[in-house]
Amino acid sequence: MSVLEANFQADIDAVNGIEAVQSILEVVTRTTGMGFSAVARVTPDRWITCAVRDEVDFGLKPGDELVIETTICHEIRQNHQPVVIDHVAADEVYANHHTPAMYGLQSYISVPIMLKDGRFFGTLCAIDPKPAKINNPETIGMFKLFADLIAFYLDAAEQVARSQARLREEQETAELREQFIAILGHDLRNPVAAISNVAQLLLRMPLEDRVKRLATIAQDSTYRIKGLIDNILDFASGRLGGGISLSRKNSEPVEDILNHVIAELRLIWPERVIEAKFNITEAVNCDGTRIAQLFSNLLSNALTHGQKGTQVNVDVFSDGEDFKLCVTNSGKKIPDIAMEHLFKPFARGSVAPGQQGLGLGLFISAEIARAHGGTIEVSSSDVKTCFTLQMPVKYGLV
């Protein structure tokens, strides 16, 4: 099947996909008393039947074709005006026209089907070998109404088809992009780990102050890069359908895990004070690595956006039911409009130079909390901002 034939078949399918078409053709034949009615697709060089009602054995069925020059629809395509003939033999214009003579017609009506963008699709027509009283405002109005209705459905179907094609294309593009991100993030882990190991080895050696500072910068940078890679991979995994994966343990050493994160960030922010208070009376069922990732995102966020020279407070609590982790920093209130988008991917709000990021940290943190059956809430005032993780201490509790 050629591309042109495929396009015509799509037009035939589109017309027959309109449930009302057969009802329209039935109303047309019964109202006018004419035995044949059809919806035709008409182009400069083709006339093809899309839908038909034939009670006079004219012989056409959907997909059949007439030579375009032998039809009156060829003229309608050119001037976009209806043609209505009560009695061919008595009509001054069409009495000697080749089309009625060729097909044995005495009554004929055809109205153009115009799409919303002005394109001519074809015609709604009816014919009969006997005369019929159709050249009146009521019949012509009915045909125009039905032609407009068919055009409306065709426009709607075309719009749906375009939207579906666009959606498929966007989905394919998004999947390729996310697969690329996942592969890239995975391949970046090894060189980043190698740089981190070299930096750690250098810091264990007796070095000049300048070299030690450079090694410290390299170590701090790899820590940030690793966090970005983890967030990218988690985001790509979530979007590709895998979601945030967990490896739970019944009694994770949560306090040790969180203290390790605090120690790492104190190295990166030596000028800032991080005050931590723990009151863990119940073992927590969780994925310690994921909780560390979540906490690192929250604490880094507090250190980045909190007021310089002020303390960041970490309060950790657990009882028989809940585990709570609160990270509080001093500083300006988060604007209401930013609060609405904090936990959405790539939402960064207003950031100062040097504070830019991908805007995935809070989104990933919220997803980790959700995977644990918990939530992250935020409160912000002119004095302080507090992010609070709350989740059940036992697996399956909500």
Plain-language structure description:
By secondary structure, this protein is of the alpha+beta class. It has three domains: 3-163, Beta-Lactamase (2-Layer Sandwich), CATH 3.30.450; 170-239, Helix Hairpins (Orthogonal Bundle), CATH 1.10.287; 249-392, Heat Shock Protein 90 (2-Layer Sandwich), CATH 3.30.565. 47% of the residues lie in helices and 21% in strands. The protein has a six-stranded antiparallel sheet. A hairpin with a 3-residue loop joins strand 12 and strand 13 (384-392). It is rod-shaped, with a radius of gyration of 37 Å. The model is unreliable at 350-358 (pLDDT under 50).
| Inertia-based shape | rod-shaped
CATH superfamily of the largest domain: GAF domain
Relative strand content? 15-25%
Alpha plus pi helix count: 10
CATH architecture of the largest domain: 2-Layer Sandwich
Tell me the series of helices and strands, N- to C-terminal. HHEEEHEHEEHHEHEEHEEHHEE
Percent in helix: 40-55%
Q: Measured on Cα atoms, how large is the radius of gyration?
A: 37 Å
CATH topology of the largest domain: Beta-Lactamase
The CATH class of the largest domain is: Alpha Beta
Outline the biggest β-sheet. 6 strands, antiparallel
End-to-end gap: 59 Å
GO molecular function, one term: protein kinase activator activity
Catalytic activity: ATP + protein L-histidine = ADP + protein N-phospho-L-histidine
Keywords: ATP-binding, Kinase, Nucleotide-binding, Phosphoprotein, Transferase, Two-component regulatory system
EC number: 2.7.13.3
